[in-house]
Amino acid sequence: MRFRLPFTGSAARRRAEDAARALYDAIVAQARQPGFYLDLGVPDSLDGRFDLIVLHAHLTMRGLGRREGEGGRHGTGFAPEPARAVSQALFDLMFADMDQSLREMGVTDSGVGKRVKQMAQAFYGRVLAYDAGLADAEDAALIAALRRNLFRAVEQPDPAALTALAGYLRAQDRALAGAEGLVEGRVAFAPPPVAA
Which helix (H) or strand (E) holds 129? Predict the structure, then answer.
């Protein structure tokens, strides 16, 4: 059973939460695509799945931050209020779901807060690394961020897989920058890339 944020009574808040739920479900479904694990060598572990969820959530939040050409924190202005509300609801839902998942795995109450805090710090660190990599026209910084995060448990990640994933991130980032329907909870990801 998935965690559901409580309704606050506001119709706009409920719409943002419903959109966030649909986006999060799509993000989790994309992070579970076998091609990431079988073809590209992402570790099929809690950490590997966490990192793929973070990567796709970040891409989606970047897209929300650039709605209607406003730029968000990645551009020149702020995203319109509905996009900001959906982005915040998505973030809240993702970490509430991780909290619940930890509890279901048997982590004690005293340990859950510490683990969720570590996950939030990891999220923000990855956001900074992926933003810097996407801002650079060359792939070196983006590939380094992928190696450090997504492949941190892999001694020698396949260079072709890293290059394919860097291209995938750039393509998804471009597609989500102009994507219609994000605020309503509609997102479409491309299939996982194939390493050449």
Answer: helix 109-135
Which three-class secondary structure state does DSSP give residue 181?
A: coil
pTM above the 0.90 mark?
Answer: no
| CA 157 – CA 161 distance, rounded (Å) | 7
The token pair that represents 103 in the structure block: 């509890």
Surface-to-core class of residue 155, CB atoms within 10 Å of its CB (0-12 exposed, 13-18 middle, 19+ buried)? exposed
User: What is the DSSP-derived secondary structure letter of residue 124?
Assistant: H
Helix (H) or strand (E) holding 70: none
Model confidence pLDDT, tens digit, residues 65-82 = 886 544 444 443 445 688
What are the residue ranges spanned by the domains of the chain? Answer: 11-184
* Helix 81-104 vs helix 46-65: crossing angle, to nearest 10: 170
